[in-house]
Design a protein that fits this description.
The chain is α+β, with helices and mostly antiparallel strands. It has eight helices and eight strands, in the order ααααβββββαββααβα.
Length: 212
């Protein structure tokens, strides 16, 4: 499973979630800014839950786009990949960064994304997590493909023991311990021999309840 697929798997699990009164929601509570428009908080939360924290923490679509243009301009592109970030500019608004979501696909002129704080009645502040379909001309998208979607040298590291995971990847230790205890991970002559991406996939599956 690619990193983009992990991102979308995590986001898909949230489809159907709706905010409480006063725009209270779990993504804003996690971020520490609840009761506000939360589409970017949803994107930040999904990347965090999938094990790929974004390098700039913000609840603002415009601030995230400005940060990438200044610090990692190569990540701002017109060639999206699955799981990347979409910044929308809807017609008739005062802003050029109205909303954000996660790229699923583009079929001809139809763009499919998974968004937080959206609905058919209000694209940019609708209160739901939904899979949305919009025309490219209406969405006017800008894509951000974070470096975190691509491999890094650090991810070539292999983990051979649970003790090593507890020391160097503590965020995955509880899940791996559960799988070892159940006999789902037995290892080889070299020990467990797990990559960082494998650890992330195990943790995401665990958070989704796949392992019970």
């Amino acid at each position: 499973m690619t990193r983009g697929e992990l991102i979308l798997q995590t986001a898909s699990k949230e489809i159907g979630y709706h905010e409480d009164k006063g725009k209270r929601n779990k993504y804003g509570a996690w971020y520490g800014l609840d009761g506000e428009p939360w589409c970017m908080e949803f994107v930040q939360w999904v990347y965090h839950e999938a094990g790929f924290d974004l390098p700039f923490s913000t609840a603002s679509c415009g601030a995230l786009l400005r940060w990438y243009r200044e610090h990692q301009p190569e990540c701002v592109t017109d060639r999206p990949v699955r799981g990347c970030i979409v910044i929308f500019d809807f017609p008739g608004t005062a802003y050029r960064t109205d909303h954000t979501g996660l790229f699923v696909s583009c079929d001809g002129f139809k763009l499919t994304t998974i968004d937080g704080n959206t609905s058919g009645g209000n694209d940019a502040n609708g209160g739901w997590v939904q899979k949305r379909h919009r025309t490219l001309g209406y969405a006017n998208p800008v894509y951000i493909v974070p470096r975190e979607l691509n491999g890094k040298e650090d991810d070539m590291k292999r983990y051979h023991t649970l003790e090593e995971i507890r020391l160097d990847a503590p965020w995955a230790a509880e899940t791996v311990a559960k799988l070892v205890e159940r006999g789902a991970l037995n290892g080889t002559d070299d020990g467990l021999d797990l990559s960082t991406d494998m650890l992330r996939e195990f943790v995401v599956n665990d958070r989704m309840g796949i392992y019970g």
